[in-house]
Amino acid sequence: MIERFTFGTTIQTGAVVQELEAAPSGAVMQFGTLCSSSPFKWTYRMDRGDMVFGLGEQMKGINKRGGLYESWCSDVPNQDEFTHSMYGAHNFLIVYNGSRFNSICFALFFDSPARVRFDIGWSKEEELAVSSADTGLDVYVITPAPDRLESELNDVVRQYRQLIGQSYIPPRWAFGFQQSRWGYKTEADVQEVVDQYRKNKLPLDAVCLDIDYMEQYKDFTVDKAKFPDLASFSAKLKEDGVRLIPIIDAGVKVQPGYDVYEEGREKGYFCKKEDGSDFTAGVWPGESCFTDFMNPEAAKWFGMQYKKLTDLGIDGFWNDMNEPALFYTKDSLQAVFDKIGSFAGQNLDIDSFFQFTPLSSSTFSTMEDYKSFYQTVNGEKIRHDRIHNLYGAMMTKAAGEALRTLSPDRRILLYSRASCTGSHRYGGIWTGDNKSSWEHLEQEIKMLPSLNMAGYLYSGADIGGFGEDSTRDLVLRWLALGVFTPLMRNHCAWNGRNQECYAFGDTEDFRSILTLRYALLPYIYSEFVKAVLSGGMYIRPLGFDYPEDHHALECEDQLLVGEGIMIAPIYRQNASSRYVYLPEAMTKVTWQRGKITTEEKGKGSYFVSVALDAVVFFVRKGCLVPLAKNAMEAASSADIDESKLGFIGNGTGYRLYSDDGFTREISKLSIHTVGR
Ligand code: GLC
Fold first, then answer.
1. Which of 554, 540, 595 is nearest to 156 (CA)?
2. Radius of gyration of the chain (CA)
3. Considering the chain, what percentage of its residues have pLDDT values greater than 70?
C-alpha cells in the first residue's frame, strides 16, 4: 500500500507517474514523528537491529545506517566515505528489521526538488532524521502488500517503482563493452582504439567521444580538423560493429555567432539572474549559459539540437556536467582575485595562510552562485537552489523526449552524470568521476543495488577508475564486476595512464573476461528487460531474496544479478581468493578463457580462488542460465547468436526475453521459455 502526505506548497518534480490523493492535512503518518512541517523534519526511532537501505547514488554501505547523506547533485571527483552528496538525488529509503518481535518493513519516498538531508544514526545512533529546509514536499509511505509473492523488501521496491514509472531501456548494443577516455582527440586516435581491440580479438561495441571532438567545447559542433567527416567515420565504424557515443555538456559557450548560443539567448531560453540578464558561469568552454530545462519550450529546443548529431548517424549520447557544475562566475572569480591580492606582501601567519590556501578552488559550484539565478516553473520565476536537483534530470528528459521524436522506431542510448528520480524513465547514469582505487571498486558493489532500488538499472561506474593511474590487476578485477553491470564502460581522465584492455600487454587475460560478458549477453539483456517490465531489481543485495537469513542480510560484498546469478567480486589488491557465503545450494561456475567448469556446492561459507583472468559466479538452485556459444568469436554484440545457447544450472527452463535490439515496442510477449 502507498499513502501520500503533502507538506507545504510543492513544486512538481515529475518523479511519480501514479496520481494518489494526499491524506487529509493533519493525518498522522504510521511511522515516526513529524517534528515540523515547515521546515520539514521527520524522525524515526530505530531499534538496534533496524537496517536502512536505499538512497541510490550515495557512498558507504548497502545498509546506510551510521551515515549522513544529502540529496544535492554535486560534482565530486574526490569522493570518499565522508562525501555526503553525489551526482544524483534519489530520496528513497527502506527501513527493515525482520528479527524484531513485530517485524518492520516500510519504505519512504521524499519527493522534493530541493536539498534533503538524511541523518541515519549519524548524529544520534538510534535516530533516523529526514529534513529539508526548503519548499514543500510529498512523502510517500509504502508498506508491503499482504498478498505479495516475494519478500517484503522486494515488494516495497516494486511498489515504489510502479509509483515512479518504468525505467529506461537502451538498445541492445549498449550492453556491449564501451571504451572511453578523455583524450581521444582525433579520428585517428579513435580508429587506433578500435584497431587495437579488433587486432587483439577483444570484443567492443562502442567508443565514447569526450569533449575533444567539439569545436572549442561547443555543444552540437564537431571539430572538422579532428573529425573531417564524422558521418562517414561513424558509418564505417558501425559496419565494424562499433558505435560512437559523443558527450554533451550542460554549459553552452557564450560566443557571438555560435548558433546554439545566439538562438538560446534570443529566445530567452537560458537561466536568468534576478535582473533578467543571462546567468553565466565558467565551465570547459569558458563563460557559458545554461538552458532553463524547466521551461518546456527551452527544453524542447535543446533536445532538438541532438538532431545535428543523429543526422550524422550517431545513436548514443552521454550528458555531462549537468548538476550543473560551475567552475566560477565572474563575480566569484573577481572576489578571489581581490582576496588573493590582499595577501600579497603580507606576513602570512597560521590564520591568514590557511585562509589563503583554499581560495583558488573556492569558486566551484557554490551555494551563493546557485542562489544567484532563476528558472521558470509554470511561468513563475523560482530561484535555482530550490529546484537544484532537477537540473540534470530535466536535461535527460529533454534529450530523451527529443530522441524519441527524432528516432521513433529505434531506441537511442542515453546516460547522464547528474540525476534525480524521474530521469530514470529517460536515460541511465554512470556514477561520475571515481578514482583508480580498490575502495572505489568496492564502493560500486554497494552502490549498484541501491541504484537499482531507485530505478536506475542502466548504470555502472568508470571501470579502471577515472582519476589517477590504474593498474593492470585493478582493471581486470573491475572488468570482472563490470561483466554484470548493464553499463560496462572503461573510462579515464586525460592525465591518467592508459587503461584500455590492450594497454597492459598479455591481452588474453582481458579477452578472457570480456568474452564472458558477451557469452552472458542474452541473459543480461533478458534479465534487465524483465526487471524493468516488472519493476524489479536487476541487481539486488543478497538479503532481499533471503531476508530470513541474517548473514545474507548483512552481506555487503556479494550481489544477486537477475533471477539466477550470485556474484562475489574480488576487490582487494593481491587477493587471489575470498570468502563467499552461499545462503543455499548453488552451482559454482568458473569461466576462464572460454572454458567453463562447474561444481555443486551446499549452503555455507567457502574460501574461493579466482585467477586474475577468470570470473567465478554462482547459479542459484533451480535456475538455468543461458550462455551464447559463439562468444569467443564475437567482435561485438551483433555477432552473438541467440539461437545457439548453452545452459548452466539445475533448472528446467529459462525465460528469455529477446527482440531485434532496438524496437521501442517492448513487450512481455517476447519472453519465451528456452532450455537444454
Ligand atoms: C567530467 C566527466 C568525465 C569527463 C570529463 C571531461 O569530469 O565526469 O567523465 O571525461 O568531464 O569531459
1. 540
2. 25
3. 100
- The pair phi, psi for residue 380, each rounded to 5°, is -105, 145
CA distances from 490 to 411, 414, 501 (A): 23, 17, 9
Closest ligand 1 atom to 321 CA:
1
Q: Is the dihedral angle over the CA atoms 470, 473, 476, 477 positive or is it negative?
A: negative
Predicted TM-score of the model (pTM): 0.98
DSSP string, 67-114: EEEEE-----TT--TT----SEE--EEEEEESSSSS-EEEEEEEE-SS
DSSP 211: G
Q: What is the SS3 assignment for 193?
A: helix
The answer on pLDDT for 100 being more than 70 is no
Higher pLDDT, 598 or 98: 598
Distance 673 CA to ligand 1 centre (A): 42
The binding-site residues of ligand 1, defined as CB within 6 angstroms of any ligand atom, are: 182, 210-211, 247, 320, 417, 432-433, 466, 491
Query: Which residue has a Cα nearest atom 4 of ligand 1?
Result: 182
Could you report the per-residue pLDDT of 371-402, keeping only the tens digit for each? 999 999 999 999 999 999 999 999 999 999 99
CA torsion angle 572 573 578 580 (round to 10):
30
Yes or no: say if 596 and 631 are a contact pair by the CB < 8 Å rule: no
Helix (H/G/I), strand (E/B), else coil: 347: coil
Lowest-confidence region among 184-188, 573-577, 643-647, 668-672: 668-672
DSSP state for residue 262 in the 8-state scheme = H
Q: Which pLDDT does position 602 carry in this prediction?
A: 98
Question: Could you tell me how many residues make up the chain?
Answer: 676
Region 349-373: mean pLDDT is 95
Element holding 304 (H helix, E strand): helix 296-304
Asked, as a colleague might, if the bond just before 324 is cis with ω within 30 of 0, I would say yes
Pair 84, 94: CB distance under 8 Å = no
Q: Do the Cβ atoms of 399 and 314 come closer than 8 Å?
A: no
Q: How many CB atoms lie within 10 A of CB 123?
A: 9
d(CA 418, CA 667) in angstroms, rounded, equals 29
Q: Which residue minimizes the CA distance to atom 3 of ligand 1? A: 433
Write out the E strands in 443-497.
459-460, 462-463, 488-490
Q: Whose CA is nearest to atom 10 of ligand 1?
A: 182
Task: Name the β-bridge partners of 492.
Answer: none
CA dihedral 200, 203, 208, 212 (to 10 degrees): 10
* Cα dihedral 368, 371, 372, 374 in deg (nearest 10): 160
